[in-house]
């Protein structure tokens, strides 16, 4: 006979054992879930904390004494209302953030340091609604740029003293006198377009002769050269106009070559002195579409040696996520200019004149040519600039072929003004002498000054064939002078050191 109590006791034990096993299984599952949750939370915090900028004192990157002169760049990205506004501060010295200037920039919102000890940010708007703050950390108002940049927007004495001599009024007068006493012995193909010719004189010297069916292109070349003279821009080779006349001493010996070139007599040509040892000149990085600006902060980066070594910024850089990176090499002091850096700045100073000059004359055939074709060829900005050359021995930039200036280029402003303005809008460092001469030219009247130099230097034959600068062109030139001076004023308000 079975014992009921023993059976009930066994059933109770089985039940207790089953409950115990279930409890242990639940505990193990809960422990596993806790571990997984902690692991997931750790991963989330590892990616999320750097984004929102929550860090302990041990994680803050502090600048060392070696980078005391570095401008710390703070990027603030504006987003739509439904996305949280994030602020990312970069203190690593070799990170460079480009700045673009736009036409509608409100200069009244720009704050400049009041003195050399100020650490207030200088804020500039960009085309994509991103603002950039330049936090001033140097004791001196111009970040150690004494002699390199003056008043925040002008090239300093150090750069001016190292600029190539170029061509001055004395060279131009000597060239006109030489042409009046020499004669042409042959014309050879060369010097650009099909009907241009390389002219060889009796003593072996050479010149480029520009021949066109339309006299306005001859006018454009000649009056653009005159404008360069009035602005004391020394990058234009000496030029003078002549009329093809096989009865004159200058052209008699080249009558057969004139016939072979299909030149018509009694037509004007521009004779430009031949410049030897020329090589192609590229477009500097600050004026290429991806980094299209030049101001005193760019100059400062060049003096630090970081302008061409900045890393490409990927998604993780933008988010600020931590990563293992090799330690950056020490940055040389900003006031130590080696030959390479100095040459770079001297070239950029000449580009300052080039951008101002090309904007004034609305030159289509130089950098605007590259910018316009960029939409079809993304590599064209890395190619040599059109109609620009560099003299290999002196590093002088030579501004070639300005025939579209002042007339033909003005007729096409509706199509190309965006490209002209793009270059000027992103230039905020100038040669002081050029701007002073431009202001003087505005006060005197550009048309009057240009006509005066034309009448003083051109022969009677040339003046009988070539008309003066048209009144319409003179008015456009005045407007463009005002536009350049307005850009200078805008840059002054943004970058000049305040007293």
Could you characterize the architecture of this molecule?
There is one protein chain. This protein has 499 residues and is α+β, with helices and mostly antiparallel strands. The protein has 15 helices and 14 strands. The protein has helices at 4-52, 157-162, 169-181, 215-230, 255-260, 296-304, 315-319, 339-361, 367-373, 408-411, 413-425, 432-444, 446-457, 460-465, 471-495, and strands spanning 72-77, 86-89, 121-125, 130-135, 149-150, 154-155, 184-189, 197-201, 206-211, 239-243, 268-273, 278-282, 384-391, 397-399. The strands form 4 sheets. It has a 5-stranded antiparallel β-sheet, sandwiched between helices. α4 crosses α13. The longest helix is centred in the N-terminal third of the chain and has 49 residues, at 4-52.
Give, in order, the helices and strands: HEEEEEEHHEEEHEHEEHHHHEEHHHHHH
Number of strands: 14
Anisotropy-based shape: elongated
Summarize model confidence as the mean pLDDT: 76
Q: Measured on Cα atoms, how large is the radius of gyration?
A: 34 Å
Strand count, sense and closure of the main sheet?
A: 5 strands, antiparallel
Straight-line distance between termini: 114 Å
Q: Helix segment count?
A: 15
Q: Give the % helix.
A: 40-55%
**Structural class computed from helices and strand pairing:** alpha+beta
What portion of the residues fall into strands of 2 or more residues?
A: 5-15%
Taking pLDDT < 50 over at least 5 consecutive residues as the criterion, the unreliable ranges are 1-10, 47-141, 308-334
| Spatial arrangement of strands, main beta sheet | 7-8-9-11-10
């Amino acid at each position: 006979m079975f014992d009921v109590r023993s059976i009930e006791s066994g059933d109770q034990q089985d039940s207790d054992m089953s409950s115990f096993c279930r409890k242990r299984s639940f505990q193990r599952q809960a422990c596993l879930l806790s571990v997984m949750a902690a692991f997931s939370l750790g991963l989330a915090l590892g990616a999320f904390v750097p984004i929102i900028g929550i860090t302990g004192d041990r994680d803050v990157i502090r600048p060392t004494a070696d980078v005391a002169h570095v401008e710390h760049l703070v990027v603030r990205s504006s987003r739509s209302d439904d996305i949280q506004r994030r602020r990312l501060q970069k203190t690593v010295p070799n990170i460079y953030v480009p700045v673009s200037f736009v036409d509608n920039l409100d200069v009244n919102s720009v704050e400049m340091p009041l003195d050399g000890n100020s650490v207030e940010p200088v804020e500039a708007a960009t085309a994509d609604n991103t603002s950039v703050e330049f936090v001033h950390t140097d004791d001196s108002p111009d970040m150690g740029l004494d002699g390199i940049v003056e008043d925040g927007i002008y090239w300093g004495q150090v750069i001016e003293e190292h600029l190539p001599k170029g061509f001055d009024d004395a060279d131009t007068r000597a060239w006109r006198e030489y042409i009046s006493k020499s004669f042409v012995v042959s014309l050879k193909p060369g010097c650009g377009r099909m009907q241009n010719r390389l002219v060889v004189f009796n003593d072996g010297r050479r010149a480029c002769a520009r021949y066109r069916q339309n006299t306005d292109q001859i006018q454009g070349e000649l009056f653009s050269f005159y404008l360069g003279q009035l602005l004391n821009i020394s990058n234009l080779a000496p030029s003078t106009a002549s009329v093809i006349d096989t009865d004159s001493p200058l052209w008699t010996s080249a009558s057969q070559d004139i016939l072979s070139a299909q030149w018509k007599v009694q037509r004007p040509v521009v004779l430009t002195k031949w410049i030897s040892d020329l090589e192609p000149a590229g477009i500097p990085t600050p004026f290429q579409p991806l980094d299209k600006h030049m101001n005193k902060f760019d100059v400062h980066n060049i003096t630090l040696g970081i302008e061409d070594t900045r890393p490409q910024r990927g998604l993780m850089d933008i988010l600020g996520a931590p990563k293992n990176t090799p330690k950056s090499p020490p940055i040389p002091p900003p006031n130590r200019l080696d030959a390479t850096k100095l040459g770079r700045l001297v070239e950029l100073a000449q580009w300052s004149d080039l951008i101002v000059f090309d904007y004034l004359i609305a030159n289509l055939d130089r950098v605007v040519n590259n910018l316009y074709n960029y939409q079809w060829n993304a590599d064209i900005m890395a190619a040599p600039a059109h109609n620009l050359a560099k003299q290999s021995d002196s590093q002088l930039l030579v501004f070639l072929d300005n025939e579209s200036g002042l007339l033909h280029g003005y007729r096409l402003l509706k199509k190309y003004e965006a490209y002209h303005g793009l270059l000027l809008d992103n230039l905020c460092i100038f040669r002081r002498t050029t701007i002073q001469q431009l202001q003087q030219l505005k006060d005197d009247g550009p048309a009057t000054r240009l006509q005066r130099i034309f009448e003083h230097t051109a022969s009677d034959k040339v003046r009988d064939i070539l008309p003066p600068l048209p009144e319409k062109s003179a008015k456009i030139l005045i407007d463009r002078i005002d536009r350049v001076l307005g850009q200078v004023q805008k840059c002054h308000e943004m970058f000049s050191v305040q007293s």
